[in-house]
Design a protein that fits this description.
The strands form two sheets. The protein has a six-stranded mixed beta sheet, with helices on both faces. Strands 7-8 form a two-stranded parallel sheet. The termini are far apart. It folds into two domains: 267 residues, 3-Layer(aba) Sandwich (Rossmann fold); 105 residues, DNA Methylase, subunit A, domain 2 (DNA Methylase, Chain A, domain 2). Helix 2 packs across helix 11. It is an alpha/beta fold. Helix content is 34%, strand content 11%. The relative contact order is 0.15. Helix 8 links the parallel strand 7 and strand 8.
Length: 380
């Protein structure tokens, strides 16, 4: 058959196949999503803006629950292990920014210095991915969207990511797309995170396009910043001496001093300690200052009406641990658009490559499908 004939048949299939979220009566309903490891709700805002409905949320941190409740009117469930998988509501989309500390560069370095385990060997957080996998296995959502640090890709010489990828594809049967995205195109912050989007029904998916150049720091500044955010002489001297010491030793450690025409380094959960990664210049006559919590909210792309009911220390931790909301919003809308597009019944038309940044990755160490069957028997 000629290429033209194949193309014609594919068009007919797309026209006749119903959209993913139309029920048997032909009525549309909102796509339902769950918000796991929800933090303060970056995923929730993003998917609600994509016209989806949140039916379940969970996070173990009580202060994050407080902020989430202040903004969404409901308190998330606590530790996900305290919730039976069967009690989680049925959903179309599973969202999760699962804990990144076991895989982050800073987290791994700290754990190594303390002689502690990292990655999957971290007993408290390293195995939470497999908790996610159990939920996906039980509920079989149409799609999942996962987020983690860029270092997940290279952790343990790539073996960690390969296990995650093989579990999602070989064991759970999802078509998975992944990409490392730098948020600096939508917020004034260099922040690279990896996103994994997996579809139960084999589908072509393209990550959204982002602007070539993003905003600068002056777009997030408050007009009247209280004096308490200016560094004391003692702290400013300490940071300068610390930077000079490491500079002399040939290390790259030091503070990040920026002005309004630049973009910031990555905001971390430790920002409350000394603010060293993002210091704002106030000229030569005055010490630099920290960002305010409201400026941090803007740096992460949260809307102006987002409530911050906690202390500065907690706010810095929460925004440092958050997703960049506008990045997730673009991905959410791309996911919904894909689900609303009739499924292509010709899997050979789905581009499957070995592009480690944007496409699928060739499987090298398969996780057997029997893995989850055994886990289900064990739980029973």
């Amino acid at each position: 058959m000629s290429g033209k004939g194949k193309k014609s048949k594919a068009v007919v299939l797309r026209e006749e196949s119903p959209p993913y979220h139309v029920n048997g009566n032909g009525h549309h309903h909102k796509l339902r999503f769950i918000d796991l490891f929800c933090g303060i709700g970056g995923f929730r805002i993003a998917f609600e803006r994509a016209s989806c409905e949140c039916v379940f949320s969970s996070d173990w941190n009580e202060k994050a629950q407080e902020t989430y409740a202040a903004n969404f009117g409901e308190k998330p469930h606590g530790d996900i292990h305290s919730v039976a998988v069967a009690d989680i509501p049925q959903h179309d989309i599973l969202c999760a920014g699962f804990p990144c500390q076991p895989f982050s560069i800073a987290g791994v370095s700290k754990k190594l210095s303390l002689g502690k385990a990292h990655g999957f060997d971290d007993k408290e957080q390293g195995n939470l991915f497999f908790t996610l996998a159990d939920i996906i296995d039980f509920h079989q959502p149409k799609v999942f969207v996962l987020e983690n640090v860029k270092n997940l890709k290279s952790h343990d010489q790539g073996r960690t990511f390969q296990i995650i990828y093989d579990t999602l594809t070989n064991a759970l049967g999802y078509t998975v797309y992944h990409k490392i995205i730098d948020a600096q195109s939508v917020v004034p912050q260099h922040r690279e995170r990896i996103f994994l989007v997996g579809f139960k029904e084999r589908r072509g998916f393209e990550f959204p396009q982002f602007p070539a150049e993003g905003p600068k720091l002056n777009s997030i500044f408050e007009k009247n910043v209280p004096e308490k955010y200016t560094l004391t002489d003692h702290l400013w001297k300490y940071l300068q001496d610390y930077a000079a010491k490491h500079r002399a030793a040939g290390n790259g450690f030091g503070f990040g001093l920026k002005d309004g025409n630049q973009i910031a380094r990555t905001l971390s959960a430790r920002y409350y300690k000394d603010g060293s990664e993002i210091l704002i210049s106030q000229g030569t006559a005055k010490n630099p200052r920290r960002l305010t919590p409201r400026e941090c909210a803007r740096l992460m792309g949260y809307p102006a009406n987002f409530k911050i009911p906690v202390s500065d220390t907690q706010a810095y931790k929460q925004f440092g641990n958050s997703v960049v909301m506008p990045v997730v919003e673009r991905i959410a809308k791309a996911v919904v658009k894909t689900l609303n597009t009739p499924a292509d019944e010709r899997p050979e038309l789905v581009l499957v490559g070995n592009d480690k940044e944007n496409g699928e990755v060739a499987t090298r160490t398969p996780v057997p499908v029997s893995y989850f069957k055994k886990r289900r028997k064990t739980k029973a």
